[in-house]
């Protein structure tokens, strides 16, 4: 009977670890997506003002867009990759969530990521889809 009780307690411990640490991982993924969205928006605001003033064409300054997105991510504990092309800023954020219970079973952290793309556009009309 003692072996059975030990096995049940171990199984309950692992299930509780999945629930608690799984919830923390989901929360970390939501945070990573939020950070990616905000960083992409920050990058998409970096227009080439000379071109815009000359002929009202919305075009990103790719260097400034990438720098703005990375600067936003630098204020977070996470890392990211940024790609700027065709008027779009794509950010992929990578985060690690430390485990609370599963760490005792040898799983110290769970890696999560979030991806977002923002498009530079003028006003609320003529939305690019």
Compact summary:
By secondary structure, the protein is α+β, with helices and mostly antiparallel strands. Helices cover 49% and strands 22% of the residues.
Annotation keywords:
129 residues; alpha+beta; 3 helices; 3 strands; 49% helix
Question: Can you describe what's shown?
Answer:
This protein is α+β, with helices and mostly antiparallel strands and 129 residues long. The chain contains three helices and three strands. The protein is rod-shaped. The model has no long low-confidence stretch (mean pLDDT 90).
Summarize the SSE layout with pairings.
Blueprint: H1 2-44, H2 49-55, H3 62-74, E1 79-85, E2 88-98, E3 109-119
Antiparallel strand pairs: 1-2, 2-3
Q: Strand-and-helix sequence, N→C?
A: HHHEEE
Report how far the terminal alpha carbons are from each other. Answer: 64 Å
Rg on CA atoms, Å: 22 Å
Helix proportion range:
40-55%
Placed side by side, the strands forming the largest sheet appear as 1-2-3
Largest pleated sheet: 3 strands, antiparallel
Q: What oligomeric state do the depicted chains represent?
A: single chain
Shape: rod-shaped
Number of domains: 1
Spans of 5+ residues with little confidence (pLDDT < 50)?
Answer: none
Look at the structure and give the mean pLDDT.
90
The assigned structural class equals alpha+beta
**Helical run tally:** 3
Strands, count: 3
Strand content: 15-25%
């Amino acid at each position: 009977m003692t072996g059975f009780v030990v096995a049940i307690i171990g199984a309950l411990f692992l299930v509780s670890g999945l629930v608690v640490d799984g919830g923390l991982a989901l929360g970390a993924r939501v945070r990573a997506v939020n950070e990616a969205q905000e960083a992409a928006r920050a990058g998409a605001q970096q227009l080439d003002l000379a071109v815009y003033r000359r002929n009202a064409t919305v075009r990103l300054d790719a260097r400034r867009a990438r720098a703005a997105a990375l600067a936003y991510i630098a204020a977070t504990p996470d890392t990211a990759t940024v790609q700027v092309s065709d008027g779009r800023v794509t950010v992929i954020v990578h985060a690690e969530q430390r485990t609370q219970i599963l760490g005792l079973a040898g799983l110290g952290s769970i890696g999560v990521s979030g991806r977002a793309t923002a498009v530079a556009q003028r006003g609320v009309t003529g939305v690019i889809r």
